[in-house]
Amino acid sequence: MKNSPTTFVVAGVLAVIFASMLFTFQVRQTEIAVVTTLGKYTKSISTPGFNFRLPWPIQKIYKFDNRIQYFESKFEQAYTRDALNVLVSVYAGWKIADPKMFLESLAGDFSKANKGIEPLIRNAKNGVLSKHLFAEIASTNIAQISIANIEREILDMAKEPIMKTYGIELKLLGIKQLGLPESITSKVFDRMRAERQTRVTQFQTEGEKQARIIRAEADSTANKILAEARATAIELAGGAEAKASEAYKIMQQEPDLANFFFQRKALEQVLTNRTTLILDKQTPPFTLLNGLFDNQTIKTNN
């Protein structure tokens, strides 16, 4: 029986597929690959695409997820610089930076990786917290709290040993949960109440100080205004006395005219309030009215 051309085509296609499976492999966008030859490390490939290889068992391909992996520590106790213990759990994000070291140290096992970095992160966390006061973690004064600095210090301390041990790069780290053991909860609350009372006293002191400053400034301004007013009054009085002195000099030269003005002024003041008087017509300053009435007495009703 003769073989048809279709049979040869199908056989050829299958041969190509089988050969590609033996001599090529694909690295995806989210993967990183390690190639070993006869059990020894040959190279790492992080660029996506197809690559050539020697068939198994000569070469073996290990592929790892190259995305950021999540880690979360246990909720454990740690001591602060002022000897208070707190409960802390942290989270972290890591990814493979050295595929060769990751394969050799952890056999490419991600669960082993999380178990391996846990004590290193715990040591960094305890070391950093021991350098900080409890008030920097929990306080009524927001300005004292420095959680962000503590997280950054833990990340910096843990990053190097994790990289050197497992070829893992720690990309991010943060505090997920904070708590207090029951044995010190009451002590912490007492301290927080004392801190709040201290702040209240401080605010009251500052308020009283500002009030004294404001009162002093107000008194100073008032005294300045009064002094200026007194100076203006003295200046006006001096000017008036000078003008009066000039007028008196003129009146001394004309005594009859001065007497007339004085009598006229006195008469105006007497007749201002609708007053009724019965006086002799020779009584000053009513002498100015002589000749205006024929009666022997002057009766005015104004």
Description of the molecule:
With 302 residues, the chain is an alpha+beta fold. The chain folds into four domains: 10-65, no CATH class; 69-180, 2-Layer Sandwich (Tetrahydropterin Synthase, Chain A), CATH 3.30.479.30; 192-252; 254-300, no CATH class. The chain has six helices and eleven strands. The strands form four sheets. Strands 6, 7, 8 and 9 form a four-stranded antiparallel sheet that branches. The chain has a three-stranded antiparallel sheet with strand order 3-2-5, with helices on one face. Strands 1-4 form a two-stranded antiparallel ribbon. Helix 3 (110-129) packs across helix 4 (147-166). The model is unreliable at 296-302 (pLDDT under 50).
Name of the CATH first level of the largest domain = Alpha Beta
Query: Element order, helices and strands?
Result: HEEEEEEEEHHHEHHEE
Structural class: alpha+beta
CATH superfamily of the largest domain: Band 7 domain
Q: What is the β-strand count?
A: 11
N-end to C-end Cα span:
160 Å
Task: Give descriptors for this structure.
302 residues; alpha+beta; Tetrahydropterin Synthase, Chain A; 4 domains; four-stranded antiparallel beta sheet; three-stranded antiparallel beta sheet
How would you summarize what this structure contains?
The protein is of the alpha+beta class and 302 residues long. 51% of the residues lie in helices and 23% in strands.
